[in-house]
Amino acid sequence: MSDRAMSEEAMLASLRDMRLPSEAAGGMIADLAVTFGVAGLLAVLIAAGLRLLSQRRVSAPVASLKTRIAECAELPAPERRVALLYLLRAQDPIRYAELRGEIYHPGGGVDLATLEGEVKRFV
Predict the structure, then answer these.
(1) Which regions span the lipid bilayer (predicted)?
(2) Model pTM greater than 0.70?
């Protein structure tokens, strides 16, 4: 470089003579890596968006266990048994699994009083 300032015409002329390489560094491998990276990032963003959209939304507050047991008391015996079994499964899956074998026995399966006692343990 010289100590003198370049004229504007000289500077513009020197910029016109610059030649950039026709291919970027890395060539086709770099282009493929960038393409796969962008596609992977886009796939992760789409999957996260779909997961957010597919989650259940609870619009009304869930009734307390006491309220749900009281609602079960108003049902006829077969429906009460099923409702209490659902409550027991939600509260104690292990005990539900133990009682599940008795559900299909002849004669009605699990006694309602026993089932209500099992569910009321959690109140």
Answers:
(1) 24-50
(2) no
Asked if residue 112 lies in contact with residue 102, where contact means CB atoms within 8 angstroms, the answer is no
In which residue ranges of the chain is pLDDT below 50? none
Task: Give 123's DSSP letter.
Answer: -
CA distances to 67, 102, 107 from 116, rounded to whole Å, are 13, 15, 18
CA distances from 32 to 23, 38, 42 (A): 14, 10, 15
Q: Tell me the C-alpha distance between 73 and 79, whole Å.
A: 10
Q: What are the tens digits of pLDDT across the range 60-93?
A: 555 688 888 888 888 888 888 888 888 888 888 8
**DSSP state at residue 7:** P
At residue 59, the 3 state secondary structure works out as coil
Question: What was the pLDDT predicted at 15?
Answer: 78
Taking CA atoms, 74 is separated from 13, 70, 80, 92, 123, in Å, by 94, 7, 8, 23, 18
* Measured torsion, CA atoms of residues 97, 101, 107, 110, in degrees rounded to the nearest 10: -20
